[in-house]
Amino acid sequence: MRTDICDLLDIEFPIFAFSHCRDVVAAVSRAGGFGVLGAVGFTPEQLAAELDWIDKEVGDNSYGVDIVIPQNDAGAEEGDPARLHEKLLGQVPPEHFAYAKKILSDHGVPELPPGEFHNGLLVRSTSTTARLHAAEALRHPKVRCVANALGAPPQDLTGQIHEAGRLVIGLCGSVEHAQRHVANGVDIIVAQGAEGGGHTGYIGSLVLWPQVVEAVAPVPVLAAGGIGSGAQVAAALALGAQGVWSGTIWLGTEESELTDQQRDALVVARSQDAIISRSLTGKRSRMLKSGWTEAWEKPEAPVPLPLPLQDLVAGEAVTRLSRYPEYSRDVHITPAGQVAGQIKQVRRASDVLLELAGEYVETTERLNALNERLDAAPGTAAK
Amino acid sequence: MRTDICDLLDIEFPIFAFSHCRDVVAAVSRAGGFGVLGAVGFTPEQLAAELDWIDKEVGDNSYGVDIVIPQNDAGAEEGDPARLHEKLLGQVPPEHFAYAKKILSDHGVPELPPGEFHNGLLVRSTSTTARLHAAEALRHPKVRCVANALGAPPQDLTGQIHEAGRLVIGLCGSVEHAQRHVANGVDIIVAQGAEGGGHTGYIGSLVLWPQVVEAVAPVPVLAAGGIGSGAQVAAALALGAQGVWSGTIWLGTEESELTDQQRDALVVARSQDAIISRSLTGKRSRMLKSGWTEAWEKPEAPVPLPLPLQDLVAGEAVTRLSRYPEYSRDVHITPAGQVAGQIKQVRRASDVLLELAGEYVETTERLNALNERLDAAPGTAAK
Hints:
homodimer; TIM Barrel
C-alpha cells in the first residue's frame, strides 16, 4: 500500500490515526503510520505538555496536530481567550446551561468540586483558540502537518504553517469544500464520508472519495469515514485515495482516552447506534447514542446552539463524565463513526495498525485470485 | 471479477442492474451482467407484456424481477386489488390528494384526459400486488430470481418461488435485516448502504457491506448503494461482496424510462442533490431534489402517509409527469442514489456495463502496482 504520500511524509503505511490521546498518536507514528493529535479541549499549556511527551516517544518519526477553526468564525475573532469566553457566554441562554446540568443530575453525575476547571470554561472551536494551538504545534519540529477539522485555515495561518515548512491538511465533506480548500492552500485533503465520527456531512464515503480525488488531483486525498479494517483501506485505495484517515478504531484501543464505560459502549454499539446529533458542538456530529444525545432530542429540550456556543453548554458535561467515569455508562458523550459496529474487542494501537496492514495484503491477494480465476477460464460463461 | 455467484447464475460479470425499463434489463443480461426488472407500477397485464418482450430479447440469458412487499403488510392482504384499492383510498385524508394536485397545478402540469388511467389508481407496494407480480414472473422461465426490495417475501411466497426452481433475493439496510432475511429463506442478500436510491437505510455502504457479508456467510451478498464505476465494484469485492446491485447508473442510459428532462436533472445533479424524502411512498426514499420533494418539506405540507397510502397520493403525479414530460423539468419524481453526482453523460446500457468491467480491471492493476512498489523497495521507509 505504498503511495506517494508515504514518500512525502516518510512513512511506511499511509494510515493516519486521529486521536485525542497522545499514546495512540505516538504508538501509530512509531509503528509506521502517522498519528494526529486532536488539540480541541486542551489549553495551550496542556497541549504543549502533550506535544513534548509525544516528541520524546515518537523517535525519529513525525506526527500531526489537528485544530478546529470554523469556516465562518464571525464574532469569535478575539485575541484574548478569557475576553472571548466572557463575550460568548453572554450569548448562551440560561436554559441551555440549566438543561445540560439537569441531564447530568438526572443521571446522578456528581458536581465538580468548587472552583475546579471544566471544559465549559474553555473556548474550544474558534480561530482564537486554534491559533494558539497552531502556534504551539509549530514550536514542535516533529509536527509535520497541521490539520483543520473544518477545512482550510484562514490564509494568514496557512501562510505561517507553510513558512514553518509544515503541511496543511483540511477535512471536507463534499467536492465543493475540497475545491475551496485547495484554492486556499491546503496541501492534503481528507474526504470524510457521512459514516464518519464527529463533524460529518451527508455524502457516503464510497461516493464522496472518488469524486474528491478526481476534483482535486494531483493534490493527495486521504479517505475518512468508515475505515476499520484492511479491506476498507483497500477500498479507499481502489477509489483513488492515497491513504486513510481514521478516528473511531483508535477509540477502541487500550491506550485511548475513553473511560472504560465508554469503551464498553463502543464495543457493544451497532453501526446504527452512531447517530447524528448537534448536542456536543452545535454542528452535525456523529456520536454514540446515549442518555446525553437522547435528552437533546426530547420535545422539551432547547434547540442546540450554533458552534462555538453549544461547545460551552456541553463542556461541563464532558469534564464531569470523564472525572466521574462510573457515571458514564448511560450518559456518555462519545463522538464515533458507524465503524463502531465493527469494533468487537479492545486492542493495542500498534496491533490495530499492523492488523490493518495485514488485512490489506490479504484483501488484494483475494482480489487477484478472482482475476486469476477469470484468466484461467476465459469465456466459460460468455454467451 | 469472477465470483461464485457468476457460476450460480451462469453470468460473466457479477453486476446486477435494477431498472424499470425492459431495454436496460435485456441489454445488461445480454452483455454478460444480470438485469432485474422493477415490477412496481406495472399492472399484472403490463408486467406480462414486459416479460414476454424481455424473454425474446435476452437470448439464452436469464434475468430477474423485483417486487415490493413491505415486511409489515397488516391490513393490505386482500385478494382483490380493486377492493383493496377502495379500502386503502378510504384511509387517505382528502388534504393529501389536494396537496399533491396543487403541486402539479402550481407547476402548470396538465390534468390527464378524463378517465385515463394513472398510477394512483393502482395499489403498488402491497403483498396483494406483489403476489400478482410474482406469479407472472414465475410464468416466465428465464426469470431466474425474484427480488423483494423490502427484504424477505412471506414464507408461502418464498416457498412458491423455490418450488419453481428460482432464487429469492432480499434487500437489507442493516445486519439485523440480513439475518432475518436469511432465516426466512432468502438465497441472495443485497446489502444497500444509505447512499443508495429509493428506499434506503442509515448505514453507509462501506461499513454495511462487510458486516452483512460476515453476518450471513456463506450466503452470497451483493453490494448496493454507490455503485457507479469499476473502482466502486472493486471496492465492493474487496469488502467481501460477491457482486454489485446497481440502479441509479442505469437511469442515466439512453434506454432508461426517465423523461429527457429527468435525465438532464440526473446529469447535472450533485451527490448532495439526492436527498431523503418520504413524499413518494411514505418510507424513507432517496430521490433527486425537485419541486415535488421540496413542496412536501414546506411547513404547510401534510405529513406524508405511511406505505402503501402515500403511493396512492403520489401516483397521479408520477403518471402526469411522465405523460407530459415537458413539465418534468422542475417537478419531477426521480428516485436516485448519491452516485447521481458521478453521472456526467448519457450512454448506452451495454457500454456502461463494459466500462464497469474495464475500470474494474484497471483498478485491480493499480492496486497491484502499489504492492509491487512495496515489494521492490522493501523497508525503505521502515524506521
